[in-house]
Design brief:
heterodimer; A: alpha+beta; 4-stranded antiparallel β-sheet; about 25% helix; B: mainly beta; Porin; two-stranded antiparallel ribbon; 3 helices; 14 strands
Chain lengths: ~200, ~300
Amino acid sequence: MNKNLILFGVFIVALLVSGENCLLEEKVIDVVIKEETCAEFAENSTSETFATSVEIDYADQIDQILSDNGYSKSDIKSATLESGSYGVTSYTGTTDWIISGGITVRRVDGGGSAVTLLDYTSESVVGLLGQKKDAALTSAGVALLNDALADYLGGQEPVIEFTVNNGDVNPNPSQGDPIVFNWRACLRINVVIEQTVDVPEPPL
Amino acid sequence: MSPNRVPRGPGSAPAVLGMLLPLMAIALPAAAQIEDQLSAYTGDNAIGYLQPLADAFGADLNDGWYYSGKVPAAGPHFKLELRYMSVRFGDEDRVFNATTEGAFTPAQTVEAPTIVGGESVEVQGDNGTAYAFPGGFNLDAFALAVPQIRVGSIMGTEAVIRYFAMDTGDVELGKISLIGLGVRHSISQYLPLFPVDLAAGFLWQSFTVGENDAGDDLLSTNTLSIGVQASKGFGMLEPYGGLSFDTFSMDVNYEDINTGEAISLDCGSDKSMHLTLGLAAKLYLLNLHGEVNVASQNSISIGAAVGL
C-alpha cells in the first residue's frame, strides 16, 4: 500500500512541479476600459440665444477613470474618443422648449480657438429629460479631443472648455417664463491598458 | 468540506488533496481580470468572447470520470483519484465576429480576439472616432485537475464524487467551487458471457468561478454526461472506451461599467456526443490511465487512482 501511495504521490508532485514551472506564464494583455466624461451645463435664460461654458480638466478625468479601475497612466497603451451623447438631467417646468444650437470645444491650456463638436437641432427639452441621445461628432471636434488625449499620454495636462451656443428657442423665453434646465454632454473614451498577468499554460 | 481546513500528514489523503489546491487554482486567469475584459461587452459580444472558455469547461468537466467498464458486483471498494483534463485551443478559437456597441457609428462587425486570443483590435469610425475591442489572454490550452472519490459497490453500483472549494482572495481567481456526483452501474453482471466489461452511468457537475462586485458567481457552469463504458483487461493493461451524451451550460454575471447594472448572460446549452478511448495500467492498488476524448471540443486526460 505504501509503495502505491508513493507512486500516486509522485504522479501528483510531477503535475504540481510541471504546474509551478510551466503553467504560469507572464503575458501582457490588452485591457479595454470604456468610460464617459461629461460636461454639465446649467441653463437659465430669458433669451433664445445663450452661451454656457464649462471647463473640464481632461487629465484629472482620465486619471480618475484609471484610478477607479486600479490602473495608472503608465499602463496606458492608447486612448481614443469613441462616441458622444447629450441629454437633459433636470427640468421642472411645463413649457416644452424646442432648442437648436451647438457645442464647441477649445483647449484652455496653451490657447487655441473653439471648434464645433456637435450640433443639436429642434431638440425638445422635455423629450431629452433623462435621455442619452447619440450625437454626431464633427471631425474637427474629435481631432481636438484626440489630440488632447495624445498630449495627456505625452505628459501634458490638457484642459478643455465646452461651450453651449444656443441659437434658437421655441417658444421664446421671457422674463416671466425663462428657460431653466440642466443638461450634459458626454464623451465615451476607449482606454487600452497594457497589463502584465500570470496566465496559465498547461504542460499537456 | 474544504480541503484546506482538514489536518494534513505525510501520505494522508488530506495531504494529497491539499497539494491539489495550487494546481486547481491556476486553471484560469484571475476572475477580476476576466471581469475587466467582459465589462467592455454586453450580450452577444460577451458570449462570443467567452465561448472558447465555455467549450473548454464543458469538454474538461465531462472527461475523466471512469477508466474501466468494470464495476464490482458487491463488496467494499474505495479509490482516491486525481484527473487532469486538458483542451488545446486552435486558431479558430482565438477570434470571433464582434460588432461595435453603443453610439459608435458606423456599426461594424470585425474579427476580434476571444478570451483565449491576442491583442486588442481597434476600428475607425466616423470623423476620427475609434472603437476598441478588448484583447484576450493568449492561452494555448485550458486544463483542470480535479480530485475525486470512487466508492462502491452495492448491486454492481458505484458512486463517483468530485468536490473542491476554496477562496483564493480578491486578487486571484476568487472563489472556486466544484461539486460532481455520478453513479455507474454494471451491465456485465446481467451478461455473463459478454466478452468485455460494460457499465452505464451518469455524472452531474456544478462548477463556479470568481465573484463579481455584486457577490454573484462570475462563471457558473453545469454539466451532465450520460453514457456507457466498456473495457477489457489484458494482464496489467486495460484498454477502455466510452460513448456518452454530454450537456453543458454556462451563466456569466458581471457589471456594466457605465451603468453599474448587473448583467447576467445565459451562454446557452451545448449538447454533444462524446467518444472516449483510453488505456489503463494496473499496478496492484495503483491505476494510471490516459485517454483521448472526441466531442464538440477534443481533449486529453490523464489520471491516477489508488485504493481497493
